[in-house]
Structures are given as C-alpha cells and as structure tokens.
Design brief:
By secondary structure, this protein is mainly β. Helix content is 4%, strand content 45%. β4 and β5 form a beta hairpin. It is elongated.
C-alpha cells in the first residue's frame, strides 16, 4: 500500500519519496503506515560519511545504523507522503 520512488540529484544525493495508496482504495481515508527500512549497499556508494533527514512533511535528522556491508535507515511512519534526503557528503548545507 506504499509507493516508493528513488532518484539521484546531480551532486549524488539520494531522494526517497513515499506515497500512501490507502486513500485511493478506501474513499480518501488514510492511516499511519510504516516507512520501513532502507538498506544502502556500501560497495555501491563508497564514502566516509552518510547523513539522512526527513524533509517533508517535517524536518528531522534520521539515525543511521552501520553494518559491515550496509547502512540501514529506519524511515519514519507516515500518513499520506514523505520525502527523505540522503547525503553522501559530510554535512547538509545550512537551511
């Protein structure tokens, strides 16, 4: 019931856009859904630092768990949609 799209910016940052499909199937009604876990394979994205943050519907830094071969990010629960930005650089620009 969740549609997830991935894209990459020119600077290499990753964007994850999740949209709930519940309103489409249940007359506009929606309930909170799990964002799930995102695993990023280190061998595909070699860098020294990785940061993730929720940028819509609110701003929040997300924690990242580092394992041997993956970075794991628990995406927050959401009701309609959310947008997550993952930076492969050391810091996010000041906003």
């Amino acid at each position: 019931m969740v549609r997830t799209a991935f894209s990459r910016r020119e600077n290499g940052d990753l964007l994850i856009h999740q949209i709930s499909q519940l309103p489409k199937h249940f007359s506009g009604q929606s309930l909170p859904l799990s964002g799930g876990l995102l695993q990023i394979k280190k061998s595909l994205h070699p860098c020294k630092a990785l940061q993730a943050r929720l940028v819509y519907p609110s701003c929040k830094v997300l924690s990242i768990q580092e394992e041997e071969a993956f970075w794991i990010i628990k995406l927050p629960d959401f009701k309609l949609q959310q947008l997550v930005e993952i930076s492969l650089e050391k810091d996010f620009p000041e906003s």
